[in-house]
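Subject line: Sequence and fold of a protein, written as structure tokens
Area: Proteins and the way their chains fold up in space.
Start of record: The labelled sequence and token lines come straight after this line.
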Amino acid sequence: MMKKSLALLAVLGCFSQSSMAATIDMSLIGGQTAFRALSEDLGSALSYKALTPPTSLGWTGFDIGVEATYTQMAKSEATLKTLTGGTSVPGMIIPKLHAYKGLPFDIDVGAFISQEPTTGIQVTGAEIRYGILPGSMALPAIGLRAAMTQLSGVDKLSFSTTSVDLSISKGFLMFTPYAGVGLVMVNSSTSAVTGINSESFNQNKYFAGGNFNMGLMNIAVEWDQTGDAQSYGAKFGFRW
């Protein structure tokens, strides 16, 4: 399943996402239940995805790359079809430009920017991570992360997430597998004229991935389950 989904991600990431080739019209939302389902899937798709192990970069370190995540719509495919005027949306691809910078005292910071090319959806995010264990030849790296994301570009929709997670990794030559658990807090609201109440809730988060470092060149892949929806991501860039 992981290989199949990553292959799909690689192919779809080369093109505009035809399934999202329509504006999301929140005035068509079908009620509170539909809005909750949409908010849960957006929480899964748009919450922070690290695509990097928790190994501290050090104060001279950088990790810069382009990435994309594909999230299956677990609850809101029918709702999104209504909101886009009949366009089928089984999943959502989010392309990103992502950068990390190492700081002293085993602290790393990171941020990304993203714009889905056919809908105008924009997502920004940022994180700060502390290396509880920075990692060594003998010991794993353990990191504690706090992050946030903000959605813009959809009229009548205010949406943001904050999250915390704990992850662990252990390097083996060029390959560093990692895994973690966390909590995502979602805040979602729409215009009062729709008659829909705002939604605030938490989602459990589980993730695992691998980082391949070949000198400066770096490739990372990651699986994530936030709430009921699964995401698959890949990143290509440079890490030193």
